[in-house]
Amino acid sequence: MAKRTLSADEQALWAKVIESVEPLDRQPRPGSPPSRSTERSDLSAFAVPKLPERKSAPGPGTTLDASWDRKLTRGRAEPDFTIDLHSHSLSSAYDRLDRALGQAIASHARIVLLITGHAPKGEGPVTRGKIRAAVGDWLAASRHAPHIAAVRGAHPRHGGRGALYIVLRRRPSE
């Protein structure tokens, strides 16, 4: 691999980059470029590596294809099963969610509408209710986690910020 030298414009740009970078551990590593404290005018020693070609990075929700995400975002998907956690304490909400997810999986549901409710009145729009804040961790640690393909915010007609869609994986043909 042949190294090329930097043009004058590239050298000036590289000098600005070097000036703006602050090492995290302040300890030079073997073979690393000199730190800011060391003056170095010969920038041609730094080769500009060619980045390998890469396929497009997966977007959020790598477990669903774009058509699923569009259906959910536009409210075109109808839930097969609904779980309502209104008026539950944290512990009773967790128990209800666990039991209901088991029922949804057993009934071969694909889209579960989980109604968590909005934050209590008087709290800012950024604040979430305690149940809604805990749901992500509950689902990740749940015995049902292998059956969950994705979790998405619900469309306003299904509850908006007070609800979630849980998309369950399709069961293999038996």
Order of helices and strands: HHEHEHEE
Class based on secondary structure composition and strand pairing: alpha+beta
Total strand segments: 4
Cα Rg: 26 Å
How many domains in all?
2
Strand content: 5-15%
Helix content: 25-40%
Q: Give the strand order of the largest sheet, numbering strands 1, 2, ... along the chain.
A: 1-2-4-3
Distance between the termini: 54 Å
DSSP helical segment count: 4
How would a crystallographer describe the biggest sheet?
4 strands, mixed
Named at the architecture level, the CATH assignment of the largest domain is 2-Layer Sandwich
What CATH calls the topology of the largest domain is Ribosomal Protein S8, Chain: A, domain 1
Task: Describe how the helices and strands are arranged.
Elements: H1 8-20, H2 66-73, E1 81-84, H3 90-106, E2 111-115, H4 130-141, E3 148-153, E4 163-168
Parallel strand pairs: 1-2
Antiparallel strand pairs: 2-4, 3-4
Protein described:
29% of the residues lie in helices and 12% in strands. The longest helix has 17 residues. The protein contains four helices and four strands; from the N terminus they run ααβαβαββ. The chain has 174 residues and is of the alpha+beta class. 16% of the residues are buried. Strands 1-2-4-3 form a four-stranded mixed sheet, sandwiched between helices.
